[in-house]
Design a protein that fits this description.
alpha+beta, six-stranded antiparallel β-sheet, about 25% strand, about 625 residues
Length: about 625
């Protein structure tokens, strides 16, 4: 590739876009850190205000007795359900193990069988903390309410259906038979599914709920699952469907969302895992808020969804809800046909334009290559790289061919500069004429580079979202979804980190080799910018890619090696420089009609030259 002015323009635009992307990402991280610090301050203040002066056994016992009395009083007609012993029931399918509790008749925890915890062989467990719960307030007597999450349900058994599904039932009945309100929770788990169906049955809902409105409360806490909790938080989002449209927020940008229109589902994605509550008939309104606990707690986010639903006026009402606890896998989530898959970041916000490229090209091709590479994810990435380079090879050839043509015209351009000296306007006009006569596109060197920008952003999103990379080892990298760090410094270098990513080093080194080889094919440049511009991107890569997923830097290493091979083969065995020179000479002999754009450009250049000449004359 020859680094003429237009090629340099392409590099400049490329670098500006890269810096713009990382500036945008950095601003999100700054907002995230500010939100985290603000919420930490609030939590510390509350904890300090609520901390007891004296914490004795007698005080604790008195508090426990008071709480027991208050629960019994609030339970009203359901007083027998206010006290009890927690009993757990386990239901398993091919994908997960779900633990249910009779306290609240709800899900206690969900173990995802196919994914293990970071640095461990134990499977990932979701919704396992005391904060995580599901319930709703009910009227238990005159002017009394209680949360179902605090009441003890009666376990009714587990029924296995002919289709392989399992139904577990819990029931809550009033102690006083005069109170007709009765509640039943029926959970259905299917053989190979991450979604859990819940059917709620309410007898005499008018007694249970004021004005027939159910105030659901779903709380979810996501615990650290990856090596770097700060990066995990940066890639954590809340998502929802309101009025039929999907939307999301990165958790550092805000902490509350109000819903005034029907809500289909609300969920939390912590990079590679996703939890959600869904109402096929929609919640009528509600609010979602969340806090960011300190990193030291190992908690990524605590989210609370307060959602309302209007029941029809009848003696008996049935409500269908669904829960999802499982991987944030685009292929898995897409099967549910409810826009779950949009929570997977294959291109969001300002970079939504790359989502179709990921959705229709990168994801299906990678899934195919992953299967034929027998689970070797590093090899699958290398094959994906080869596929992309073959796909873009016409652009590469076009770029090199344009560079060869520009190189052939350099002697002519040098003559123009010698003839017109410092008159840049005239030189520019004459160059345009020369390019038109020779049939050369001066932008041919930078356009192919610009067209590859969507590929970069698509792969950046993909390698941050693809769950198959999680825990996948390759060469010295233990986890391709995180940076490889075979070398640790023991101290932190600003903008670089406390480690050296070897894949990033190799990507940088091969990028420098490409620049050196390309410059060796170009004549000496007198412009310092043109001399050093090709080396800016590798330096940029060394610093900004050091903490990115190893999958991305491995991809760039392979891509650069393929580029070096292609560059050598095209320059030495495909492009015939003598033939190009003859073709240019033949083109210059043929009459060239001017396009409307060329005519306008030449008119503008002529007017600018005339204006400059007048200004120079007035100065003299």
């Amino acid at each position: 590739m020859n680094f003429d002015r237009n090629t340099v323009l392409g590099f400049v635009l490329l670098i500006v876009l890269f810096f713009g992307y990382f500036y945008y990402t950095n601003m999100e991280q700054v907002a995230f850190n500010k939100a985290k610090a603000r919420q930490q301050f609030i939590q510390d203040s509350i904890a300090k205000a609520n901390s007891p002066v004296v914490d004795t056994l007698a005080t604790a016992t008195a508090v426990a007795k008071t709480d027991s009395v208050l629960r019994s009083t609030a339970a009203g007609y359901f007083v027998t359900a206010a006290q009890g012993v927690e009993e757990l029931q386990v239901v398993e399918n091919q994908r997960m193990k779900v633990v249910f509790t009779n306290k609240g008749g709800q899900i206690k925890s969900v173990t995802v069988k196919e994914h293990t915890q970071f640095g461990d062989t134990m499977p990932v467990t979701l919704a396992t903390t005391s904060f995580a719960r599901f319930g709703y307030a009910i009227n238990t007597a005159l002017n009394r309410t209680a949360s179902t999450a605090a009441l003890f349900y009666a376990f009714q058994g587990i029924e296995k259906k002919s289709d392989g599904s399992q139904v577990i039932t819990f029931e809550l009945a009033a102690a006083d038979t005069a109170y007709a309100g009765r509640i039943r929770h029926q959970y259905t788990i299917y053989p190979a599914d991450y979604r859990i169906n819940l059917q709620l049955e309410f007898d005499s809902p008018a007694q249970l709920f004021t004005q027939g409105q159910v105030p659901f409360l779903w709380q979810y806490e996501a615990l650290k699952q990856e090596s770097d909790i700060a990066y995990e938080k940066q890639n954590t989002q809340v998502g929802f469907v309101e009025d039929g449209a999907f939307d999301y927020f990165t958790i550092g940008n805000r902490s509350t969302v109000d819903f005034t229109k029907p809500v289909g589902w609300v969920g939390v994605r912590q990079r590679f895992f996703f939890a959600a509550i869904e109402a096929p008939s929609n919640f009528t309104s509600g609010q979602l808020n969340w806090i960011l606990p300190p990193d030291s707690t190992g908690s990524v986010i605590k989210a609370t969804a307060a959602l309302k639903m209007q029941l029809p006026a009848s003696e008996r009402a049935t409500v269908g809800l669904k829960f999802y606890f499982g991987p944030a896998d685009y292929t898995v989530l897409k099967k549910y046909d409810n826009e779950f898959e949009k929570i997977v970041n294959l291109g969001q916000g300002a970079y939504t334009f790359v989502r179709p490229l990921n959705k229709y090209v990168i994801v299906p091709i990678f899934d195919f290559l992953k299967n034929i590479s027998l689970g070797n994810i590093g090899l699958a990435i290398a094959l994906l790289t080869l596929f992309i380079r073959v796909l873009t090879s016409p652009l590469i050839y076009s770029s090199y061919l344009s560079g060869a043509k520009m190189k052939a015209l350099r002697p002519e351009i040098a003559k123009l500069k010698e003839k017109y000296g410092e008159d840049q306007q005239t030189i520019s006009m004459e160059q345009m004429k020369l390019f038109r006569e020779a049939g050369v596109n001066p932008l041919g060197g930078c356009i192919p580079a610009l067209l590859q920008i969507p590929i970069f952003f698509a792969l950046f999103s993909f390698f941050n979202a693809e769950i198959a990379l999680r825990g996948a080892s390759f060469l010295w990298a233990n986890d391709l979804s995180a940076y490889d760090a075979p070398i640790r410094f023991g101290f932190t270098i600003p903008l670089f980190g406390d480690h050296l990513s070897l894949f990033n080093f190799l990507a940088t080194a091969t990028s420098l080799l490409i620049s050196v080889y390309s410059m060796s094919l170009s004549p000496d440049q007198s412009n310092p910018m043109m001399k050093y511009m090709p080396y800016i991107f590798p330096v940029f890569m060394l610093f900004f890619f050091n903490s990115l997923p190893a999958a991305l830097t491995w991809y760039y290493t392979v891509s650069n090696l393929i580029t070096l091979v292609l560059q050598f083969v095209i320059q030495n065995y495909i492009i015939d420089h003598d033939k190009i020179l003859l073709q240019i000479q033949e083109n210059r002999k043929k009459p060239k009609p001017k396009s409307m754009w060329q005519e306008k450009l030449e008119q503008m250049q002529a007017q600018q030259k005339k204006l400059k000449d007048m200004q120079d004359k007035s100065k003299r």
